[in-house]
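User: Hi! I have a protein structure encoded as tokens and I'd like to know what sequence might fold into it. I'm fairly new to this, so please keep things simple.
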């Protein structure tokens, strides 16, 4: 193809996502696969539904919990509320995909990928089973009494990183404003 034809066509074939946006989406898929694989192993490999509880360490165990609410069992919902949560989780994933489109910050892409993967993992559980499979139990620490899963962990870490991203962005803006004054 002649070079001038390529130059004319290039604006029509711009990538849909920045490289960091694609990395965020890939991270979300990794989190989703890890979350769903761990839940399948808990349900069908270890058969935690039948045995309910397995001690691993003095402070850690696998404990079967059917979480019908949002993270850590808050705001329990059944019936139509279940489907509102499913819609919310998949809706948030769609919004995050759009935020990732032109992402230029590695920290933002990382945090959004973690949040999206976790939201999709728990949303799939809620749609398929009517509850989220929680099994990681650190209540033996006497500090953290909740039972959670890989998706919950990804969401919490992603939100913490997103808060850090916004704090850093705010500090950078204030530094620029102070330098211009």
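Assistant: Happy to help. Inverse folding works backwards from shape to sequence: for each of the 181 positions I chose a residue that suits the local structure. Here it is:
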């Amino acid at each position: 193809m002649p070079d001038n034809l390529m130059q004319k066509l290039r604006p029509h074939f711009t990538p849909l996502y920045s490289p960091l946006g694609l990395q965020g989406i890939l991270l979300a898929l990794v989190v989703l696969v890890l979350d769903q694989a761990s839940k399948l192993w808990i349900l069908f490999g270890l058969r935690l539904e039948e045995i309910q509880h397995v001690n691993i360490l003095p402070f850690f165990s696998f404990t079967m919990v059917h979480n019908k609410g949002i993270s850590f069992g808050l705001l329990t919902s059944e019936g139509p509320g279940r489907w509102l949560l499913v819609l919310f989780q998949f809706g948030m994933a769609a919004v995050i995909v759009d935020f990732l489109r032109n992402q230029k910050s590695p920290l933002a892409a990382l945090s959004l990928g973690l949040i999206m993967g976790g939201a999709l993992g728990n949303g799939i559980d809620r749609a398929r089973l009517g509850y989220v499979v929680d099994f990681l139990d650190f209540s033996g620490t006497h500090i953290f009494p909740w039972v959670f899963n890989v998706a919950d962990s990804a969401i919490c870490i992603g939100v913490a990183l997103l808060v850090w991203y916004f704090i850093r962005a705010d500090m950078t803006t204030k530094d620029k404003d102070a330098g211009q004054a």
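A useful reference point when you look it over: The longest strand covers residues 60-67. Feel free to ask if any position seems puzzling.
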